[in-house]
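User: Assemble these into one structure.

Assistant: Restating your components, then the assembled model:
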Amino acid sequence: MSGQGGCAARICPGIPCHSNQRIGGVSYQELQIRLADKGYVASDDLAVALHLGLQLGRPVLLEGAAGVGKTDVARTLASVLDTRLIRLQCYEGLDAAQSIYEWNYQRQLLTIRAAAEAGETGKTVEDRIFSRDFLLERPLLAAITQDQPPVLLVDEVDRADDEFEAYLLEVLSDFQISVPELGTIEAKTRPVVVLTSNGTRDLSDALRRRCLYTYVPFPDRVTELAILTSRCPGIDAQLAAQVIGFVQALRQEELEKTPGIAEMLDFAAALMGLGVADLTAAPVLLQATLTTLLKTQEDQARITPEVAARIGGKAA
Amino acid sequence: MSRVTRFAARDPGPSARIIGFVAHLRENGLRLGVAEADLCLAALTQVEAAQIEECRRALRSICTGCHEEFERFDALFDSYWLDAGRVRQTSVPAPQTSLSNDVHSSRDGTGQDSGTDGTASAPGAEDAEASSDGTGKLIATLQQNLSRKDLRDLVRPDDIAAAETVARRIGAALRHRRSRRRIATTGGQGLHFRKTIRRSLSTGGEPLHLLRKKRPDRHRKIVALCDVSGSMSVYAQVFLAFLAGLMRADKEADAYLFHTRLVRITEALRDKDTMRAIGRMSLMADGFGGGSRIGPCLQRFADSYAKRFVDGRSVVLILSDGYDTAPPGHTGQALARLKKRGCKIIWLNPLKGWAGYEPAAGGMAAALPHVDLFRAANTLADLAALEPELTAL
């Protein structure tokens, strides 16, 4: 099989990898507005990092607590750019066969059988079964072979092993993948790459160096209110302010799992669904809907009705 | 007067200033290469370069790589670009040898030479004061440190070398655990049937390639918390050397100091220049030899860093005598929380070596139910002797 490596057929020769210019020339504020149109309220830090990532063709590494909207950025960015989102969820033990490519063995075997019956043998069959048609594209390969540059989301990269980080570095720096039987596959277009990390493990300096970095904190009151009103347009202004006040105050409490933005939205949706108009007026319903915010038994035990009332009172 | 730094007239222009800025960041411990300066210039053409805040955000996204750097960046940015109208004489500082993090020092580290000429590195600049030396550069000298306890008087390089050997052995004893599961590998003992059959598809069902499997080593992360309060100062020498050695021996280990507050010293101790590492640590350990609040410090640890760094594969090593000025309940609670993350907790107490010692101190008594191993340790030899017990843990 190694004899095949020598032929090094270039799949897409001479196609330039230019940096992404589809929203070229616009400022980061423009990007921020477009993201907001699609329902994502980005902070200035984040918007500048994404803007630079697009303009300079660099991957953007986002770090932050769970539930601050890191994954959602990529999703929204894809819809702003009107392109595909290709997602690679990392986990321990992720390997090249699942992240880059694998040969479609079944199809190869069937083709060999069919070819044998037709009396076809040797080099022609071999060339055919080791062609692109028989290659199963996994996310990293798929991302560099699209006609329109997609958004490649490498989610929770800190969960993957060091070996995978090495593959990823190679792909991110050269935007090409070498398949021994086929040669080097070069990128048709450069994907917009977004990496997210929860910080469960320190990433290598080499990976950090190649990326633009931004830390996504929990949003402040004004930003979070904007997020809530853009996601739940029907919410009453007073209730929205109370919900945000409550969640912001709750984050100051000592909790095992600090509620994120998704939890806040669930909380607001639950209150709206139950027809609560004023948080302070419905302590029983408030306590019942806390299940959307508090996700461990200790946290639920810690936020007793009295504590909830105190936080709710402060928020109002 | 404008807040913005003015540059000397003979200054060659923006690119030189950016290079100067990158050099300034590098001196302050950010790991930046040559390409970053280029990238910074490219980035500034993409934002409104006249807007300070936009520049700050753009440069921050390029020059930082982790949360700590992200937080420190603002101060470094201000000190270079917003130096209250002070004239910066030369944008590009003269190259300084062996001060960068990425340079291996060939010195044996016996001298007190680092950081005394006033323009040297500024270790741990986030909580160090600024001083100006006429060139308009914000630096944190080690001179001011002399008024405090200088850990470099306590720890000598030979100690660290000896401690490194011990730490390496202890680290190895704790670290190498073989997983119960097996994974595919080259040259393992057993056959990996699933992968072999999957692979046999490519050869028409004939298992030509036999794939093997073995039990992989699962590395245990060592997280060391060292008490440097007054009552522990006698033992600090041994323990700090041990920590420094541990950081050198094990790249996944994590280290913290605590007295009345908790400080993460992992990054500082990773410095390749031994004496500078200790120097950085002493800047961070402001309050060394003072009171101790073990409970609150452990709680803070359980609340913040532990969520990121401690999991079922961690071993938390606490080096403390257990004398706590805070109420004892905190220690127990904090350890219980830590324990729930699935880690092992080892408490090494120097006092336990004394004849007739009873863990009577409230904090210590409260901690004991949560501790997997409670042992004496006050010299390096004691630490070395722990090896078999740690292996058995």
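The mean pLDDT of chain A is 83.
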